[in-house]
Amino acid sequence: MGSLFRSEEMTLCQLFLQSEAAYACVSELGELGLVQFRDLNPDVNAFQRKFVNEVRRCDEMERKLRYLEKEIRRDGIPMLEIPGECPEAPQPREMIDLEATFEKLENELREVNQNAEALKRNYLELTELKHILRKTQVFFDEMADPSREEEQVTLLGEEGLMAGGQALKLGYAD
């Protein structure tokens, strides 16, 4: 396979293709890697080109694939990587199926992430409530035990708040 350096021998060709066969021909030439395409209509706006909708669809599918790859790598799931090998360009019929599959996977993954976040929040909230219940149970157990009355601390520490010669103590009412 040659490269597209200046020292390589090149030939400038103009190719006329039927609209129906253009996709298959260009994909085959692109997969060979021996062809460089030149834009013969540089003044035409990108949004006025014939295949702008297909390019947008491809960009959107690429974005979804990047999102899926980022999530897979974040979770540490091993992926099969084939260095230097690119898959063949899918046929237009297959593009529709791929687009639907990527959309479904992206939506499912977003839903899974939202559910995981909600579960984590619920877990933390329930853990906090469990600790609160344990602490209040210990408090009520200590208050119910009459032998621990001498261990009760006065309201303002050792000297206490004297009301009529008697220290005020904290307690609870049933």
TrEMBL record:
In the bilayer, the protein is annotated as: Multi-pass membrane protein
- Say which domain of life the source belongs to: Eukaryota
Check the record and name the InterPro entries matching this protein.
Answer: V-ATPase_116kDa_su
A single Gene Ontology CC annotation of this entry is: plasma membrane
Q: Which UniProt keywords apply?
A: Coiled coil, Hydrogen ion transport, Ion transport, Membrane, Transmembrane, Transmembrane helix, Transport
What Gene Ontology molecular-function terms does this entry list? Answer: ATPase binding; proton-transporting ATPase activity, rotational mechanism
* Any one biological process term the GO annotation gives: vacuolar acidification
Residues in a coiled coil are 95-129
User: Does the keyword Ion transport feature in the UniProt annotation?
Assistant: yes
Broad class of where this protein is predominantly found: membrane
- The answer to whether keyword Transferase applies is no
Q: Where in the cell is it found?
A: Membrane
Instruction: Check the record and name the PANTHER family matching this protein.
Output: V-TYPE PROTON ATPASE SUBUNIT A, VACUOLAR PROTON ATPASES
The similarity annotation says: Belongs to the V-ATPase 116 kDa subunit family.
What's the stated role of this polypeptide?
Essential component of the vacuolar proton pump (V-ATPase), a multimeric enzyme that catalyzes the translocation of protons across the membranes. Required for assembly and activity of the V-ATPase.
Indicate what this protein is called per its UniProt record. Answer: V-type proton ATPase subunit a
